[in-house]
Design goal:
single chain, mainly beta, four-stranded antiparallel β-sheet, 10 strands, 0% helix
Length: 104
């Protein structure tokens, strides 16, 4: 089992390659302030093979209530790996959406 985790403050995206047959991706946005110019409001991931989406973007969005932000629902998706000897490699892509912290 190989887990890779990418973070921006408390928000994160992760991929887990298990038993050489599949992947599970997860992400969660916390609405956290990452720097003086960035509040993380979304955390997304997708898997590609040979430049084509195996699954499209899966996104967790932080919840906003007035000027307050709270953790979003976790995004999660599993896929089967490509099992052929010469098949294209499956790649994990992630992205974090941000806004300025003063935005309400």
């Amino acid at each position: 089992m190989a887990v890779q985790r990418y973070t921006k403050g408390t928000s994160w995206a992760a991929t887990n390659h298990y038993l050489l047959v599949g992947y599970t991706g997860e992400s969660q946005a916390y609405g956290n302030v990452y720097s003086s110019t960035q509040r993380v409001i979304s955390a997304s991931f997708k898997y590609t093979r040979d430049g084509k989406d195996v699954i499209g973007w899966q996104t967790s969005r932080a919840k906003q209530s007035g000027c307050s932000w709270s953790v979003g629902t976790k995004a999660r998706k599993s896929i089967t790996d490509s099992l052929g000897w010469n098949d294209p490699v499956t790649k994990f892509r992630y992205d974090f959406g941000t806004i300025h912290p003063s935005v309400c």
